[in-house]
Amino acid sequence: MRNFVIFLIGLTLTSCSQPDSADLILYNAKIYTVDDEFSVKEAMAINDGKILMLGTSEDILAKFKTENKLDLKGKFVYPGINDAHAHLYGLGENLRGVELKETKSFKEIVERIVDYQKEFKSRFILGRGWDQNDWEIKDFPTKDTLDILFPDTPIALTRIDGHAMLVNQKALDLSGIDENTKVEGGEIISKNGKVTGVLIDNPMSMIDAVIPPLTKNEIKEAMAKAEEIALRNGLTSLTDAGLSKEVILTIKEMQENGNLKIRINAMVSNTQEDIDYFLDQGVLKTPRLRVGSVKVYADGALGSRGAALKEPYSDQHNHFGAMVIGLEDFDGLAKKLVQSDYQMNTHAIGDSANAVVLRTYQKYLNDKPDRRWRVEHAQVLDPSEYEYFSKNILPSVQPTHATSDMYWAEDRLGEERIKHAYAYKRLLDEAEILPLGTDFPVEKVNPMLTFYAAVSRKDTEGYPENGFQPQNALTREETLRGMTIWAAYAAFEEDEKGSLEIGKYADFVILNEDLMTIDIEKVPELKVQSTYINGELVYQK
């Protein structure tokens, strides 16, 4: 009996001293956890896709055993980047059309379309990315040249912000749009009584209705191509701002089959059919998908003068922009959503649109403390209305919009209103949380540009020297939080991701340089070395 007891004691001591198993250990690293203390660790142990422990390299290597050890030799680890407002499916869709970004004239657009059509012979030519503000002649283009070159092939070319479209006569004929067509919430631009081909906001839906839809396989292909770009840029999660039922259910299927790794917070598009379907289902939550919000458009965009302003545009004195949703419809939708568990996430650019959204939110959320309804962009504000923001009414902003728009935004708004536009620091001071995104493909996918723009308030050429409205720059810590844990909070997912803490998903990126200390001017050139989701390597440079 004595020998047996000694044997049991020895067995217990031996088992207690045996290291725990892990799927992956990172060590000799500088790991920014982005926890409440913004603590930095040396090593991390991962098992079953989640974080087991963080600490020193010595402690982690002593406590855990694994055949998969990664000596990072001083490299830098951050939580996976979470883009708080993007269009992953839109990025994939755009890959099937003509790329029109960074064109310097309408002539260059025409040249790109001609070259594209020679190669692809499309039955309906699509393109996106033009911006007349980048051209020497900054007026909207007209359809005349397209009508001559492509009389029998419909063309729809979407402006970079997605709130204006140039179409040719064939597309107009298919949609039924002519000089007598009236559509609320936008504009069909005419000149000398003739339609020019430029449509602003709601009339674009008449063109969308005649564009051949993607098949389910084409949707899958678009998502897969877009995901490849996202992973290469260090995105492990994102909020896709406005998706149909068909696309959301296709994403769910792809994720369940292991064909889509990235985690997606999907906003449901504001159509009666899609909203009714998902509200009846309740909030949909899987490890890689959340469906619990509705994307609403209050107004259009500043660049196309569709943003709804309280006073006229400074460069078009009789023009105020327009709401794209009726006030009664907006109030009715808010009342419907507040009775569900769904967030209301509303695109609002102009100060008039933001006023409507903020006051409506306050009306319905006054006694509901944790609904986290979002104002997407929150771009131009009346200074008296910042006080509406809180952890329950969140601004969701995109720092590169400020550095893209700064060349012409003051022309639209004037010297006084521009002071209350793109005011990210002021928004953070009020809300205490500021989720950051890119709005790609309006802007580039690269989150390093988000970080750079938020901190420096400059474009990638280093302009302006002291930054655009530098008083609204964010600190590096605030910016990293905005790209990780605050983006997770805005999607009710802060308990499972957004920081590197025990029990959370092992979603992280590895860089060769330290975002917290590197010369800010070098940040745009940084490249993600590796991207991990669930402890699985999904991209390596």
What does this protein look like?
- The protein has 541 residues and is an alpha/beta fold.
- 32% of the residues lie in helices and 23% in strands.
- Strands 10, 17, 18, 19, 20, 21, 22 and 23 form an 8-stranded mixed β-sheet that branches.
- β13 (155-159) and β14 form a beta hairpin.
- The termini are far apart.
- The model is unreliable at 5-16 (pLDDT under 50).
What would the keywords be for this entry?
alpha/beta, 541 residues, single chain
Architecture blueprint of SSEs:
Elements: H1 2-17, E1 20-21, E2 24-27, E3 30-32, E4 40-41, E5 43-47, E6 50-55, H2 57-63, E7 64-65, E8 69-71, E9 76-79, E10 81-86, H3 88-94, E11 98-99, H4 106-120, E12 125-130, H5 144-149, E13 155-159, E14 164-167, H6 169-175, E15 186-191, E16 194-201, H7 204-208, H8 216-232, E17 235-243, H9 245-256, E18 263-269, H10 272-281, E19 284-285, E20 289-297, H11 327-338, E21 343-348, H12 351-365, E22 373-377, E23 393-396, H13 399-405, H14 409-417, H15 424-431, H16 447-456, H17 476-482, H18 485-489, E24 508-511, E25 530-533, E26 536-540
Parallel strand pairs: 1-7, 2-8, 3-9, 10-17, 11-12, 12-13, 17-18, 18-20, 20-21, 21-22, 22-23
Antiparallel strand pairs: 2-5, 3-4, 5-6, 9-24, 13-14, 14-16, 15-16, 19-20, 24-25, 25-26
Global Rg? 25 Å
Low-pLDDT stretches: 5-16
Count the DSSP helices: 18
Question: For the terminal residues, how far apart are their CA atoms?
Answer: 61 Å
Number of strands: 26
> Average pLDDT across residues?
95
Largest sheet: 8 strands, mixed
The coarse silhouette is globular
- Helix-strand category: alpha/beta
Work out the helicity level.
25-40%
SS strand fraction: 15-25%
